[in-house]
């Protein structure tokens, strides 16, 4: 049982935040993580920047490009957060694309995550089949929860398959879109949330994409365990830097 | 051992479908349907009819007598430059739009680098009366104004890709993002043998008409179906896949792949993926690609806009790794000289991409009785400005 499982067992709706490592400034990673913990966030996804982030809209793309320009790399990130567990105790996941992990070496990457105290990985372009055939054992050996995405278009058979191999939570993409493309949770999304709630999955679901404020957070968590805010938080960092993180979080709950 | 794709979508170690879940239903639909649809008699009939009446197939297999004499060997040119729209690209776009229609899609998206695939896509969308959106790097839009104008005349909307390096790889990213945001009514026509499975195999099958024709054409001219070598330039590698396709598993036929060395392989301005690339993932496919040590995809360079892709199709990565293919890289200068040489010797002005394949004879020697088929993948009209600037014409 890692920190994610313990957090999921708490009787509350979880607020999770995504941010891009090394953004706005290279050395902001640690500061952002500490500020998020202090402000009462339940969980954080640390974005490992990639040159070609296919599933991301302009906000996260631009933050990734800037972070890479700042000098962010996999090795730099690991070095920046090597002592993070001295001050931060909430669950931490790394969210990134598969190629940088492949180049670092998947096993070395997982081992490093365990050493630092990372609890899980979200890798949008690592498909279910590749994961189960080649990487599941490695992830589990190092105590990492791998989080899969589902979308409104995902078939129920596939949701069942994803539910059965998930170890942590399911990342429920609120609508067919890239990150930051839509800013609302409408009736269509609500029907989708209700449909998933009715499936009786063993794995808790956390909603992402389209969550930006108190209203969308509350709508998204009516039938789910929690919600993730990404692009809206990155925009806040762009506008206000790392000093006003607390006010952003407090405005949500 | 086969060099064709296997049932899991891999060529040896390369291929697969490394895609976000948002794309899974679309790609899965294609994967389960593409062969079924392509095998339908009505599909075959319509595809072949359009290739004949609209594209102008079969394209000639031309014995280049003066060019052959110069290099003391037997060189045939497969004249894909005579296809409607000026290159082989249209073979694939015709096939894919017929497939898209049968899948009930109404909206077509595509990426383009130099604009050739964009024009070929806009052309078939006009032909079929379908909406067409072409993503093109903002820098390429400036460099390739005539092709942008062609696409607009054909009714397409050209959207600049302003992210990243603003060239082909970013246009491809934008097209994929569009598909994520429009998962139901849209088909993405990828222009090369790249992307997630089944795209590399599907595009290769549509382009395989090239080597299918070479077989009977060579039988007529040489009394045998198999040449000693098939030669093509490789960016993503669709024209190469087309001319290799029927010969992949016939080991008496040598496969030569010609990559763009740009200003020289180790100058930092090159697109020679086999020499500079490492195994990784680009646009949903595991293949060889140019990247930093940290796994960030880098920007290649070639004078030819159609060859500056940082990856290569998984079929070609496998041909390289297994040694089945012989990979040669040609610099900008060598390619430009070869383009001019073919123009003067044979009266054919080739695309600069193709000029790379024509340039191998300076270094690579052949026997006098070797039969070599080069895929003359495109015509040089689109490159006139580059030729003018380079040769001060």
Automatic annotation (TrEMBL), chain A:
Tetramer of two alpha and two beta chains. InterPro entries: Aldolase_TIM, RibuloseP-bd_barrel, Trp_synthase_alpha_AS, Trp_synthase_suA. Coiled coil: none annotated. The alpha subunit is responsible for the aldol cleavage of indoleglycerol phosphate to indole and glyceraldehyde 3-phosphate. Belongs to the TrpA family. Signal peptide: none annotated. It comes from Aquimarina intermedia. One of its GO terms (molecular function) is tryptophan synthase activity. Keywords: Amino-acid biosynthesis, Aromatic amino acid biosynthesis, Lyase, Tryptophan biosynthesis. SUPFAM superfamilies: Ribulose-phoshate binding barrel. Pathway: Amino-acid biosynthesis; L-tryptophan biosynthesis; L-tryptophan from chorismate: step 5/5. This is Tryptophan synthase alpha chain. Its EC number is 4.2.1.20. It is an enzyme of class 4 (lyase).
From TrEMBL, chain B:
PROSITE patterns: TRP_SYNTHASE_BETA. The lineage of its organism: Bacteria, Pseudomonadati, Bacteroidota, Flavobacteriia, Flavobacteriales. Tetramer of two alpha and two beta chains. This is Tryptophan synthase beta chain. PANTHER family: TRYPTOPHAN SYNTHASE, TRYPTOPHAN SYNTHASE-RELATED. One of its GO terms (cellular component) is cytoplasm. The modification N6-(pyridoxal phosphate)lysine is found at residue 89. NCBIfam families: trpB (TIGR00263). Its cofactor is pyridoxal 5'-phosphate.
């Amino acid at each position: 049982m890692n920190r994610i499982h313990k957090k999921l067992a708490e009787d509350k709706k979880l607020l999770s935040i995504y941010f891009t490592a090394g953004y706005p400034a290279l050395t902001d990673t640690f500061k952002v993580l500490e500020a998020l913990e202090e402000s009462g966030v339940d969980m954080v996804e640390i974005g490992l920047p990639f040159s070609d982030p296919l599933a991301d809209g302009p906000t996260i793309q631009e933050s990734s490009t800037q972070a890479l320009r700042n000098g962010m790399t996999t090795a730099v990130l690991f070095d920046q957060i090597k002592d993070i567990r001295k001050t931060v105790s909430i669950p931490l996941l790394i969210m990134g694309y598969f190629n940088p992990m492949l180049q670092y070496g998947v096993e070395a990457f997982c081992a490093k995550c365990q050493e630092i105290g990372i609890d899980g990985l979200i890798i949008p372009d690592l498909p279910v089949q590749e994961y189960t055939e080649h990487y599941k054992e490695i992830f589990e050996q190092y105590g990492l929860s791998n989080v899969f995405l589902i979308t409104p278009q995902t078939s129920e058979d596939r949701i069942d398959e994803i539910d059965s191999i998930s170890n942590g939570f399911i990342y429920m993409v609120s609508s067919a879109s890239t990150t930051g493309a839509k800013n609302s949770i409408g009736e269509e999304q609500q029907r989708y949330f209700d449909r998933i709630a009715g499936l009786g999955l063993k794995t808790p679901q956390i909603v992402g994409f389209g969550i930006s404020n108190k209203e969308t957070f509350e709508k998204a968590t009516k039938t789910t365990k929690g919600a993730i805010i990404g692009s809206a938080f990155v925009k806040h960092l762009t506008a206000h830097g790392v000093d006003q993180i607390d006010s952003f979080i407090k405005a949500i709950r | 051992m086969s060099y064709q794709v296997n049932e899991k979508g891999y060529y040896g170690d390369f291929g697969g479908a490394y895609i976000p879940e948002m794309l899974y239903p679309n790609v899965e639909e294609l994967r389960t349907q593409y062969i079924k649809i392509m095998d339908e008699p009505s599909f075959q009939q319509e595809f072949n009819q359009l290739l004949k009446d609209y594209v102008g197939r079969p394209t000639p297999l031309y014995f280049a007598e003066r060019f052959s004499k110069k290099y003391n060997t037997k060189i045939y040119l497969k004249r894909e430059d005579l296809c409607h729209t000026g290159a082989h690209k249209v073979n694939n776009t015709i096939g894919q739009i017929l497939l898209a229609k049968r899948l009930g899609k109404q909206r077509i998206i595509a990426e383009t680098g130099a604009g050739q695939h964009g024009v070929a896509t806009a052309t078939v969308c006009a032909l079929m009366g379908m909406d067409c959106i072409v993503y093109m790097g903002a820098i390429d839009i400036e460099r390739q104004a005539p092709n942008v104008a062609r696409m607009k005349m054909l009714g397409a909307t050209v959207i600049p890709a302003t992210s990243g390096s603003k060239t082909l790889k970013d246009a491809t990213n934008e097209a994929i993002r569009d598909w994520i945001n429009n998962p139901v009514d849209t088909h993405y026509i990828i222009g090369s043998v790249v992307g997630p499975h089944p795209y590399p195999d599907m595009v290769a099958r549509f382009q395989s008409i090239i080597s299918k024709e070479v077989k009977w054409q060579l039988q007529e001219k040489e009394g045998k179906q198999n040449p000693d070598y098939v030669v093509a330039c490789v960016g993503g590698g669709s024209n190469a896949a087309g001319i290799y396709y029927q010969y992949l598993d016939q080991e008496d036929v040598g496969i030569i792949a010609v990559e763009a060395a740009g200003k020289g392989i180790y100058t930092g301005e090159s697109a020679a993926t086999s020499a500079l690339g490492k195994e990784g993932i680009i646009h949903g496919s595991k293949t060889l690609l140019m990247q930093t040590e940290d796994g960030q995809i880098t920007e290649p360079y070639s004078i030819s806009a159609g060859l500056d892709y940082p990856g290569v199709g998984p079929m070609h990565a496998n041909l390289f790794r297994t040694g089945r293919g012989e990979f040669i890289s040609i610099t900008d200068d060598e390619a430009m000289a070869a383009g001019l040489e073919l123009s003067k010797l044979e009266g054919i002005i080739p695309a600069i991409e193709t000029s790379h394949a024509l340039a191998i004879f300076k270094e690579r020697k052949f026997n006098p009785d070797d039969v070599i088929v080069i895929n003359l993948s495109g015509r040089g009209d689109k490159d006139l400005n580059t030729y003018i600037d380079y040769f001060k014409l």
